[in-house]
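Notebook p. 47: complex prediction with NAP.
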Amino acid sequence: MADQPYIKLRDGNSMPQLGLGVWQASDDDARNAALKALEVGYRHIDTAAIYKNEAAIGAALQETAVPRDEIFITTKLWNDDQLQAEKALETSLNKLQLETVDLYLMHWPCPEKGNYVESWKQMIALQQQGRVKSIGVCNFNNDHLKHLIDETGVTPVINQIELHPMLQQRELHAWNAMHHIQTESWSPLAQGGEGVFDQPIIRHLAKKYDKTPAQIVIRWHLDSGLVVIPKSVTPSRIEENFAVFDFRLEKPELSEIATLDKGHRLGPDPKTFNG
Ligand SMILES: NC(=O)c1ccc[n+]([C@@H]2O[C@H](COP(=O)([O-])OP(=O)(O)OC[C@H]3O[C@@H](n4cnc5c(N)ncnc54)[C@H](OP(=O)(O)O)[C@@H]3O)[C@@H](O)[C@H]2O)c1
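Predicted complex, structure tokens below:
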């Protein structure tokens, strides 16, 4: 199998383009999933304070034979802690049993709270202190991003947003790219539902490449230049989702998948979510 691809971020750091998501995984499931993923070759895990499984990921990192410096760990600053980023990061690092994380993301802008610029300033300070290697955001639209950059002069390296074949976010992806912000897809498999796997074009490509529908969807993210973090706690699926580096989709096939976009969100709208 070909080597897994890495993406160079605007601050010079690199990250594996494919990672394991662990939202809604219990402690046991998250620990076992992380160990399985590291065994099959994943080197990137995406967790968050609000997932309540950072300690389980920390346990897996202690247990694995894979050296720490080969693993890219993302965690996220929860909304209630926007104005106490340092304290929140300390808590996350303690749970993860780490000195630093590779990527720290602000989880939501929560525009009505009006705190995201101040929160970003705190995250910038944490990066300057070396407590986190890279800093980015999740769920920011281009107005939020523009405001953040205008106020601080520091551009996030990543914008992690809901993105799957039914919600392709092409305008925001293009805006991010124009500002050298890497787009990362959350719920990349549309949470395994929404009929994505049953779409005729996905089924047709699965047959053509002798792959599963999930592998076709993951390949679509990779070939679209997105960082992608499919979640699974099922060992066979963790393996399946990583076996995607030995084929590529052709341009017309990407265009056909583009027609599946329905602009349909599974999660909250960042414009109005202030939770
Ligand atoms: N920043 C944010 O606001 C935000 C929001 C949501 C998610 N995220 C991140 O994005 C990650 C991924 O998103 P997600 O967890 O919402 O959904 P997802 O990755 O789109 O889908 C996960 C679901 O698909 C199933 N699945 C996985 N691989 C499969 C396969 N090969 N065939 C069939 N079904 C498969 C999983 O089942 P099993 O686990 O039972 O195998 C699970 O039910 C999260 O875990 C989290 O790290 C971030």
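Notes: DSSP finds ten helices and ten strands in the chain. The chain has a mean pLDDT of 97.
Next step: compare against the earlier run before touching the bench.
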